[in-house]
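#structure-requests
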Amino acid sequence: MEVVMSHVDVMSLVGTAVPEALRSAGHMACWFVVVDGVKRSGPFISREAAGASRAIWLLEMARRQRGLDALVA
């Protein structure tokens, strides 16, 4: 059984693409975590926070992968 790992990225938005709530608070950029092209968490007001969320997504997917490997073995 072949299991394909998802692709996890951090996506940035700037200017008018930033959600209105953040723009009205003075933020001109924000970041989201995207898994296989789908926004999964965010918006974050710092790249560091988005990177931390990405790391959590990767750890969780690795944990689930190990669980699947145990089932297949």
